[in-house]
Amino acid sequence: MENQNFFTKDSKNFFLKEGEKTSLRLLPGGGAAQSYFRRKNKNYIVLLIFALLVAVFYGKALWNGFVHDDLSQIVDNPDIQSLKYLYKVITSCPWEHRVYGGCNALSYYRPTMTLSYILTWQISSGAWFFHLVNLLYFLTAGFLVFLLIKFLTKNFILSFLTALIFLINPVNSEVAIWPATVPDVTFTIFVLLSTIYFIKYRQNPIFKNLLLFFLFFFLGIISKEPAVLSPIIFVFLDLFYFKTPIKEIFNFGKIGSVLKTANGSSGGEDSSDLSMKQSQKTETNIGLQSDPWFIASRIKPYLAVFASLVIYFTMRKLVLGHFGGVTNQYYGVFTIQERIFAFITLFADYVLKFIKPFPLLLFYTYEKRSDFLSLKFISSFAIFFVFFAAFIFLLIKRKNLLALAFLWFFIFLVPVLFFITSVGENIFTERYLFSPSIAFSFLLSSAFLYFWRKLRYLRILWLITLILAVGTSFYIINKRIPDFKNNDTLYSVTIRDNPKAYTIYSDYGVYLGMDKKDWEGAEKAFKNLIKVNPQWFQISNVYSNVGDIYRMRGDLDGALEYYKKSAEAGYFGYGVYNNIGAIYVEKKDYLSALINFCKAVQVSPDVQKPQENFSRILPMIDSEYENNLQGLWNDITANSSYELSKDNVIEYLGRDCQGEQCLFGFSFMGKGNETILPSLILGLSKNKVFKTEPSFDPKTSRISLELDLKYKKEIIDFIFPTCEGKYFKVKADLNNNIQ
Question: 733 has which bridge partners?
């Protein structure tokens, strides 16, 4: 026959043995090739339909600008704007350039995000191009949902409908139209790919499939942290889809035994020939159970998972300095009761968000609670219970793919519920539902097709319902896209729809001031927040921002007022104290300036600026009072910045006189971080103020004063000023003891 010329004498090696399964439904030859290309063409048609769908539903996003986190992650991030920083894909972390303390103060390690931004920027820095790339990612995720469901169910309609619902789900619109959500969409893409290639490897355990599985799983976990849990999906597939007993998957002893047997029976065959034969084997339920390479293939994906996790956590440890998350300052420490309450209620809120997606918000408010008898908790617990009861019921009824959907939803949502103190202030947000929405789409599609088949006389109703759902989604999504046009629209809409979005009030003020130079608008936004919630946990930053606005106007008194309010509200950082000190320098109140520069050094001892300012103010004080020590005494004891402390924390230790000099020792037992300013220690004897040559040993808290011998029998008043704005006044009889 003519087509025999296409085969070599070894062509028989390419055919399956009797009893082995093939992924092709037709025999090898023209029929199989035609079937293969028909499937490929159908996939391309589906991809084209989805592309048109994304363009129609989300195309307007291309005219949006950068908003909110885009500015920090892209526009103001020098690390993504040049290929010379390509090495930082591995060695840095998101927000490193903006956060004091660098990566050690952060919980996120996402190299894929950084790489995506770098490569995108090299083509165009325009917002439209970042939006285009994001929509392409979104389209890819939708198409992979279609492929995965088709792999699992062999049902084209179910697969298409699942992907359709996934793409037009309004809850997913935030990810589609916001470039800052690249970690969410890329992590989902790679989780889908790793799952697909896990299935492909189980169906055909060749090295290519294993390698691609390893690659996509690793890319998933360096895209976003929840991908670490995807091996749970793989185990579930092995147990309930491929129906492989767990002991056979992880039976290392049996694997070693059969491998040893296989190596001993190779009969001198060339190893390359043996490898070729091994790569040609296809998984089957019959005839391969004793094959050593088939048995070994069961554990190989999990070895790849283990290797990936070791590499990932090693990289994470080296860059961040820790394996887990860093507790954020937004909510502080959660009690066990508060954690349980948050876990259950947030889970229920996420489930309900699919049922009632509107309104869609950039920022949702959460309040810590632990009242387990409240209606909120009881109703949430009922939803939680029903969810897991349904999961168990489906397992019992062997509806394994439906059970898989419940598991998928839970495991990719649970990280944000468990690591609640590491995800920031916005612990409920739509983008966390992006990957779980695959499960929701599958369940909804399955329910739709079930009723379509069972209640045929209502098909017109089901069709109308589907059309209305698509139309409603289109309306909601296209109504939302303009909200992300710029920060003006995004922040205004968010504050309008959620008056408790206090973080957005603050961000809006910063945006108006720093980006638009609208200082009046910024002041109005900040003062509005102060009025709405003066107890907000970050209100100190708001006071500081108002102080900055007054300072830029030249109103030093107004700036000083708000900087002091910021400090009183518990400002974290050296900036406010440094700014207060600088204003006092402008006012030539050097003593008050010294107090605040000293506080700035105490807060941030490793930062150079407050150290420099503290060092500069000391000679300015010496110059100001060089010939007026009485004036220095009066200014310390009468200055509103210093307060006389009644605490008895200084003890006279004794004297040591040699020649014309005596060294008098005192111990300082201050509270907390109280720090003596040795250069300001003064003595008053017979109405004459004198300055000593002091020294202070912080380890022993010993103060040593060197005085002339003439003072050794006098009663002297000493003042010991501190960084905290206090001074201790001590009347000491140097011939005896302290009084």
Answer: 715
Q: What is the pLDDT of residue 670?
A: 77
Indicate if the pLDDT at residue 16 is higher than 50: no
Q: From CA 375, how far away is CA 371, in angstroms rounded?
A: 9
Domain regions of the chain by residue span: 36-320, 636-733
Percent of the chain that is helix, strand, coil (3-state, to 5): 65, 10, 30
Beta bridge partners of 707: 662
pLDDT of residue 425: 78
Residue 709 has pLDDT above 50, yes or no: yes
Per-position b or e across 682-720, b if 16+ CB within 10 A of its CB: bbbbeeebeebebebeeeebebbbebeeebeeeebebbb
Whether the per-residue pLDDT at 311 is higher than 70: the answer is yes
Instruction: Give the CA angle between residues 693, 695, 698 to the nearest 5°.
Output: 165
Beta bridge partners of 704: 665, 695
Residue that the structure tokens 């392409």 belong to: 136
Rounded CA-CA distance 9/581 in Å is: 90
Q: Give the CA distances from residue 667 to residues 168, 493, 729, 731, in Å, rounded to whole numbers and listed in that order.
A: 73, 60, 14, 14
Residue 539 CB coordination number (10 Å) = 21
- Amino acid code (one letter) for 652: Y
Backbone φ/ψ region at 94: left (φ over 0), alpha (ψ -120 to 50), beta:
beta
User: What's the mean per-residue pLDDT of the chain?
Assistant: 85
Give me the mean pLDDT over the 529-546 stretch. 92
DSSP code for 722 = B
State residue 537's pLDDT score.
Answer: 84
Q: What are the E-state strand segments in 272-357?
A: none
pLDDT tens-digit map of 406-453: 999 999 999 999 888 777 778 899 999 999 999 999 999 999 999 999
Output the six-digit token pair for 706: 């060197």
pLDDT interval class at 251 (50, 70, 90): low
H helix intervals, 605-734: 608-624, 629-638
Integer Rg of the chain from CA: 35
Q: Does domain 636-733 have CATH number 2.60.40?
A: yes
Q: Is 395 left (phi over 0), alpha (psi -120 to 50) or beta?
A: alpha
Sequence-ordered list of residues with C-beta below 8 angstroms from that of 110, at least 6 positions apart, any chain: 93, 94, 183, 222, 223, 224
Closest listed residue to residue 183, CA positions, set 139, 144, 222, 217: 222
Question: Under 8 Å CB-to-CB from 179, ≥6 apart: which residues?
Answer: 66, 70, 73, 74, 127, 130, 131, 133, 134
**High-pLDDT (> 90) share of the chain, %:** 56
Collapse the DSSP code of 737 into the 3-class scheme (helix H, G, I; strand E, B; otherwise coil) and give the result. Answer: coil
384: how many CB neighbours lie within 10 A of its CB?
17
Element (H, E) at 517: none
Chain-centroid distance of CA 640 in Å reads 44
Under 8 Å between Cβ of 696 and 676: yes
- The Cα–Cα gap between 76 and 97 comes to 9
Q: How far apart are CA 500 and CA 428, in angstroms?
A: 14
Give the helix ranges, DSSP H, for 533-571: 539-553, 556-568
Q: Which residue has the tokens 């609670």?
A: 369
Q: Which strands sit side by side in the sheet containing 682-685, from one edge to the other?
A: 643-645, 726-733, 715-721, 682-685, 688-691
- The better pLDDT of the pair 437, 262 is held by 437
d(CA 420, CA 427) in angstroms, rounded, equals 7
Q: Which residue has the tokens 């008194």?
A: 557
- Tens of pLDDT along 38-48? 677 889 999 99
What does 109-127 look like in DSSP terms, one character per residue?
--HHHHHHHHHHHHH--SH
Amino acid symbol at 127: A
d(CA 492, CA 599) in angstroms, rounded, equals 38
